[in-house]
Design goal:
It is built from 9 helices and 11 strands. It has helices spanning about 10-25, 30-40, 75-85, 105-115, 115-135, 190-210, 225-235, 250-265, 305-310; strands at about 50-55, 60-65, 95-100, 145-155, 160-170, 170, 180, 245, 275, 280-285, 295-300. α3 (about 75-85) runs antiparallel to α8 (about 250-265) and α5 (about 115-135) crosses α6.
């Protein structure tokens, strides 16, 4: 794929200093500042590099080092290829399914102010949901494994925390002696998954509130009170939470290609950028509200808002090395 004409790094270098000055006392935290610095310095002299020279024509080429930051759009391509190669032996020759667990908006608001705790709970509750329903003899009756990936964005870079889970279509019998396959084209009932996920997540959130007193500010500041917090969550116990399963993959190779894209994706790729100046950044996005026809559109945001949305998806420092895999495939071939 050819190098894009415009990169997130270009926007950060040109407009990042002004954004930092204007938001120094409000929005920015240390992980976000580190991400901005890493992306701005990626493949520049600031990070050093090496010189490659041709022995015949004396032509020299300077190759600057990558920042290798998890949030950098430039650094994820090579990392994805390496990760995909390392996962080849983990795949089974079975049908694979893709299940997505999404947090409703009121919970997403809480997650934004308590990322480490709520993201961890999202991984745990979604995994436990799949393990529990799959182990039920009325559904599958097997011990399954999974690969879970956290995403916090929609196509327009709005805040939309959800977990993508790739699951083999079956698992080991309780005694560990045989493989139990699911029905062709069908893994587990999504309504059953949705309701258990809702219960497990809300129970976990109540425990977190009681044990660790999550931080709340601005319009959520009242949620520090236990009774107010319980009242806030009460309507969510009756609404349907979004859990859906996509059609199974064509084969293990498609699973691996898909996973390498999803595990190393960032809030926006450089190839989606259209233009940028002091006032506006334009980028391509997919409008999922359109059911038929061309979903791709151009969105124009104030430059500061574009930077703010990008930084919204910076992971807490304690999660930046463990955001990718929640549970590996279990069982034997």
């Amino acid at each position: 794929m050819p190098r894009p004409n415009l990169e997130v790094a270009d926007i950060f270098r040109a407009h990042g200093p002004v954004y930092r000055r204007e938001n120094a006392s409000s929005h920015l935290n240390l992980p976000q500042l580190k991400v901005m610095s890493a992306i701005e310095n990626c493949r520049t002299a600031a990070l050093g590099g090496h010189v490659a020279a041709c022995t015949k024509c004396d032509h020299q080429h300077i190759a600057y080092n990558s920042c290798r930051n998890r949030h950098c759009p430039k650094c994820q391509g090579a990392t994805a290829k390496d990760w995909m190669q390392a996962r080849m032996d983990d795949l089974l020759s079975v049908e694979y399914f893709h299940v997505v667990f999404t947090l409703p908006t009121p919970i997403a608001d809480i997650a934004y102010q308590n990322k480490t705790a709520v993201y961890g709970l999202l991984f745990k509750a979604s995994a436990q949901t799949l393990l529990t329903i799959a182990a039920d003899p009325t559904h599958l009756g097997a011990r399954i494994g999974m690969t879970s990936v956290l995403h916090t964005w929609g196509s327009a870079m709005t805040y939309h925390p959800h977990v993508h889970v790739v699951v083999p279509g079956g698992g080991m019998s309780p005694d560990g002696k045989r493989w139990i396959s699911c029905r062709p084209g069908f893994f587990l009932p999504v309504k059953v998954l949705s309701r258990l996920f809702r219960r497990l997540f809300l129970e976990g959130l109540m425990r977190l509130h009681k044990a660790s007193k999550p931080r709340f500010f601005s319009n959520l500041s009242g949620l520090t009170d236990p009774d107010t917090f319980a009242t806030h969550l009460a309507p969510l116990r009756k609404t349907e939470w979004v859990v859906y399963a996509k059609r199974p993959f064509g084969g293990p190779e498609q699973v691996l290609a898909y996973l390498s894209r999803y595990t190393h994706r960032v809030a926006i790729s450089n190839h989606r950028l259209v233009s940028a100046d002091t006032d506006t950044v334009a980028f391509r996005w997919k409008d999922y509200r359109i059911k038929r026809g061309d979903r791709m559109k151009i969105m124009r945001l104030p430059t500061g808002e574009f930077i703010r949305r990008f930084l919204t998806h910076v992971l807490p420092s304690v999660m930046q090395d463990s955001w990718r895999i929640a549970f590996a495939v279990t069982g034997s071939r």
